[in-house]
């Protein structure tokens, strides 16, 4: 950010929320920067971005690499101290 001419104060004011969020970890990205798939699609003249995505999702939006979304086991709920409460109608 400093290379772009931002002061430390501007960085904290404008992007502080990002740095705070990243303190809790980053979303799964496989080490590939956001937007790289789009750049590759353009460079390769590929009309379908799914052909260049490192981790594409299926047609029903499932992630096969992470098996997500998936059911949560009772053991996982107990480990985290959580329980599922059905909503009253």
UniProtKB/TrEMBL annotation:
Species whose genome carries this gene: candidate division CPR3 bacterium
Keywords: Aminoacyl-tRNA synthetase, ATP-binding, Ligase, Nucleotide-binding, Protein biosynthesis
Cross-referenced InterPro entries: Aa-tRNA-synt_II (IPR004364), aa-tRNA-synth_II/BPL/LPL (IPR045864)
Stored Pfam families: tRNA-synt_2 (PF00152)
Domain of life: Bacteria
Keyword Membrane: no
Segments forming domain Aminoacyl-tRNA synthetase class II (D/K/N): 1-58
Protein name: Aspartate--tRNA ligase
GO molecular function, one term: ATP binding
């Amino acid at each position: 950010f400093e290379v772009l001419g931002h002061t430390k104060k501007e960085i904290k004011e404008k992007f502080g929320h990002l740095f705070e969020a990243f303190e809790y970890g980053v979303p799964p990205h496989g080490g590939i920067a956001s937007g790289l798939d789009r750049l590759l699609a353009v460079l390769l003249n590929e009309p379908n971005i799914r052909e260049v995505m490192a981790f594409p999702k299926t047609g029903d939006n499932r992630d096969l690499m992470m098996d997500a979304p998936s059911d949560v086991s009772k053991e996982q709920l107990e480990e985290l101290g959580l329980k599922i409460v059905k909503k009253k109608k």
